[in-house]
Design brief:
The structure holds two protein chains of two kinds. By secondary structure, chain A is an alpha/beta fold. In chain A, 54% of the residues are buried. The model of chain A has no long low-confidence stretch (mean pLDDT 92). The mean pLDDT of chain B is 89.
Chain lengths: 580, 81
């Protein structure tokens, strides 16, 4: 398969590494790139079958202009929002810029195949995104157009459904609508395909500041070929896989996410074949490759050019980092390529990263003192092994604060991670209350807990109850709502949470559910029904489902679900919070 | 390699599903034991392990819902090869 792809490395980039320094808007940056380097092959989309779509900047521009024309012809006015629902490919990336060239604000959303198979549930999700964004347009491929067209009139909030089939090159080239550097350039919906969408608004200025600080922080050069499969509706995909390399002038290779999941070795062969130097993935992907790729699939593989293997968007696990280095060391992979990083969409993407070319740093700390005193005390015996998620990137400040008083904490004391930078978001779309909760005096409350050792940041846990599986976020409340709909479940007595699984390198979904059902057959039926409803509406399988009699779930004195303490009651099912 | 043994071992280990739930006929996709991403990963595993090709439109509960359906599907594909 992959070795026979016959792929050719892209020609060296003619773009100077400091190209972005003078850019003030995204459309301005791409337009200047096109004017100066029209023949530069900037983008390659590689499919599982080995087919490539290789695009020069001139061709990319032509497609983006076709998308601009489509949106303008359908009535998009400057400032209007458009949601793009497309799989990774040339159409999506062109349309993204096409909306901006027309003066609009693009937002990306997951395509149905990525999670939700029930079309009614999927339509409802897209409708919520459109509603939150106040979008006037949604652009999709045939599958999406068919699904959305079956929606009752009005359910999409009056948004017009457009098809990529109508994106036609040719015709008069439209003038690019000038953008204001401080205007919102894009809205990022990273919080999975469930619940109420949280739209992170990012300005041109913040996005470009971010690209410069990351470029400088990790020493990204325009000769670095970037090879990625992360979905573009995810912040790591949109910025890490697409915008950052494209606008820094790095040859950019994209693989559709589903093609990677089906054939993980494709990613590694693409890194080999294209001379890939940089890639972004979440921990589960490294685990998947280490465990599931057989020797015969990678005969002759050479990963020696891989300079930066970013590991971000979910907890970086020490066993995964070690297993990956062990598995692929014989194929030229260098352990120092693994670059653990931490960040969030509200600050565009990662804002701390381990120094490039240094092996990952692991801190082994005392489990008991971490749990009881929130102190990270080094231990040589069996403790919790945490991987350093790096040091603050240039122009980013990180502080650890006590939860209650928000007072700063010294090294090795676990508290909330706060940060400040020149690339913070403009707020959540249509949600000033939530924005005010997390933005205080120019600082951002990340909602994560961690500690510092010198400049090294260690992530410990999320402060908020959030489930992160394979880098995708899910709100426990949505899973619990789905479970509560099942007959036999005690109303309001279900809790859901993520359970770290070191083997798969990510979390899996766990739930404790109260029921009065006692008969074994009926309990088996209930288990099936609960799993089925969650899969149908959330798109996730519950891996650890524990049915308990009434009283088996903890609630706070005010009647709220106490997820952590409920989970802690069943260590035999879910293990301890920090492993066992 | 016996197709059934391989499929059961993969589903059990990869998705941590109790072996007692992996009966021949028990639906895995429709009951939520396997979500859509898991199903895509399973299809990839079958392709690589048995050297078969599975068209995208057949990666669904109509074709690959239970151990029995998966095993029969793989056997049919192998017989056609």
């Amino acid at each position: 398969m992959a070795p026979a792809l016959g792929i050719e490395a892209p020609a060296p980039s003619p773009v100077p590494s400091d190209f972005l320094d003078a850019c003030t808007t995204l459309p301005g940056a791409i337009e200047e790139l096109v004017e100066r380097f029209p023949d530069y092959e900037c983008l390659i989309v590689l499919g599982r079958d080995g087919n490539e779509d290789r695009t020069t900047l001139a061709k990319f521009w032509e497609r983006a202009k076709a998308a601009q024309a489509l949106f303008e012809d359908r009535g998009l006015e400057p400032g209007d929002h458009a949601v793009l629902v497309l799989p990774t490919g040339g159409e999506l990336v062109s349309a993204y810029f096409g909306v901006m060239l027309a003066g609009g604000v693009p937002a990306l959303s997951a395509a149905p195949s990525n999670r939700i198979s029930d079309h009614a549930v999927y339509r409802a999700f897209v409708a919520k995104v459109l509603g939150n964004a106040g979008a006037r347009f949604v652009l999709g491929d045939d599958e999406v157009v068919e699904i959305l067209s079956a929606t009752p009139t009005g359910a999409l909030g009056g948004a017009s459904v457009l098809s990529t089939r109508d994106m036609r090159a040719g015709g008069a080239v439209r003038a690019t609508v000038a953008a204001d550097p401080d205007a919102v350039a894009t809205i990022q919906y990273s919080s999975g395909t469930t619940g109420d969408p949280k739209g992170v608004m990012l300005s041109h200025r913040a996005m470009l500041n971010y690209m410069r600080l990351l470029r400088d922080g990790v020493g990204l050069r325009s000769e670095d070929v970037n090879v990625n499969w992360a979905p573009l509706y995810h912040d790591m995909g949109l910025f890490g896989a697409f915008l950052l390399p494209l606008l820094c002038g790095c040859p950019t290779v994209l693989i559709p996410t589903m093609d990677f999941l089906r054939d993980p070795a494709l990613w590694l062969w693409a890194l080999d074949g294209y001379g890939g130097a940089v890639s972004w993935a979440s921990n589960f992907a490294y685990s998947l490759c280490a465990q599931r790729i057989e020797d015969h699939e990678i005969e002759g593989l050479d990963l020696s050019k891989w300079r930066i293997a970013f590991n971000a968007s979910e907890p970086v696990l020490a066993p995964t980092v070690e297993a990956f280095a062990r598995r692929f060391g014989p194929y030229g992979y260098r352990p120092e390529a693994m670059t653990a990083a931490w960040g969030l969409a509200e600050t565009v993407m990662v804002c701390s990263a381990h120094p490039v070319d240094e092996e990952p740093r692991v801190d082994c700390i005392d489990r008991g003192r971490l749990a009881a005193e929130s102190i990270a005390v080094p231990t040589s015996s069996e403790g919790v092994s945490l991987v350093a998620t790096g040091q603050a990137l240039p122009n980013v400040e990180i502080e650890i604060r006590e939860v209650a008083t928000r007072a700063g904490l010294p090294d090795r004391h676990v508290g909330e991670i706060w940060l400040r930078s020149n690339c913070l978001f403009e707020g959540y779309k249509n949600d000033p209350e939530l924005t005010a909760q997390v933005c205080v005096d120019g600082w951002l409350d990340s909602g994560d807990r961690g500690y510092l050792v010198g400049d090294d940041l260690f992530f410990v846990a999320r402060e908020k109850d959030l489930i992160v599986i394979g880098g995708e976020k899910y709100a426990p409340h949505d899973v619990e709502m789905a479970i509560n709909r099942v007959e036999g479940v005690r109303e309001g007595c279900a809790v859901a949470f993520g359970v770290a699984n070191p083997e798969s390198g990510t979390e899996e979904l766990g739930a404790v559910v109260e029921t009065r059902v006692e008969a074994a057959d009926a309990l088996a039926d209930l288990r099936r029904s609960v799993r089925s409803e969650v899969a149908r509406t959330i798109g996730l399988g519950i891996r650890r489902l524990h049915l308990v009699p009434p009283g088996g779930i903890d609630k706070t004195t005010s009647g709220k679900l106490a997820r952590r303490s409920t989970r802690a009651r069943y260590p035999e099912v879910f293990g301890g919070e920090y492993g066992s | 390699m016996d197709v059934r043994d391989a499929v059961v071992a993969y589903v059990r280990d990869e998705f941590r599903i109790d072996e007692c739930e992996l009966t021949w006929d028990a639906p895995l996709v429709r009951t939520g034991l396997l979500d859509s991403v898991s199903l895509v990963q399973l299809a990839g595993y079958l392709e690589r392990t048995f050297g078969i090709e599975i068209p995208d439109q057949e990666v669904d509960a109509d074709h690959l819902d239970s151990i029995g359906m998966i095993v029969e599907y793989v056997r049919q594909r192998l017989a056609q090869a």
